[in-house]
Amino acid sequence: KGEKYYKEKKYDQAIDYLTKAIQLDPEYEWAYAELGYVYINLKQYDKAIDYLTKAIQLDPKDERAYRYLGMAYEEKGQYDIAIEWLSKAIEIKPNAYNYYWIGDVYRLKKDYDKSIVSLKKSLALDPKYLNAYLLISYIYNEQNEYEEAIKIMEEAIKLIPDSEILYAELGKIYMLNKNYNKANENIKKAL
After folding, report:
1. Which of 1, 48, 6 is nearest to 24 (CA)?
2. Radius of gyration of the chain measured on its C-alpha atoms
3. Model's pTM, two decimal places?
4. Could you give the count of Cα atoms lying within 13 Å of 125 in the half-sphere of its Cβ?
């Protein structure tokens, strides 16, 4: 039920349920990890870090706890620490989601090359991971590399042709590139 409540953004109920689960079983690692995730959503990062650290002590193989810990440190602006925790998550489970998050931290550090490498690893594992495409596009736009941004969006649209978000993003890129006809064409597809 704790997971159900936080997915519904009923954080107080999720905290109550997960706290009771821990009271019933102080070794229940999953509840600590989920409680940490709830506190990230509430922007209570230090509390989140405490619960996630406990989750890792109880189960050092739970990649979610490492990923969530990386996310908490990312939100605190402690990017190097975030990268350490996300790297551990990748060691345990090299999935698209973990590569995405480490790519996001590299982006925030303005280490765009490492960010794009990580995001492309994410896409190699899940070729339809929409957020990875959007973040790569964002990075190229930040560097005024509009042609690269257009290529990545067109690649994404081939794989996910019904995504309105991708057409809107492509329209935005064409707008920045002052190609107003293409911008208009793609924005209409987004509507």
Report:
1. 1
2. 19
3. 0.90
4. 15
CB 11 within 8 A of CB 19: no
- With beta carbons less than 8 A apart as the criterion, state whether 134 and 169 touch: yes
**CB of 135 closer than 8 Å to CB of 160:** no
CA distance linking residue 49 with residue 163, whole number of Å: 35
Is pLDDT at 123 greater than 80 in this prediction?
yes
Task: Report whether 130 contacts 160 (CB < 8 A).
Answer: yes
Q: pLDDT tens digit string along 138-163?
A: 999 999 999 999 999 999 999 999 99
Q: Token pair for residue 103?
A: 């790519």
Q: Which residues contact 187 (CB under 8 A, 6 or more apart)?
A: 167, 168, 171
Residue 32: partners with Cβ closer than 8 Å, 6 or more residues away: 22, 51, 52, 54, 55, 58, 65
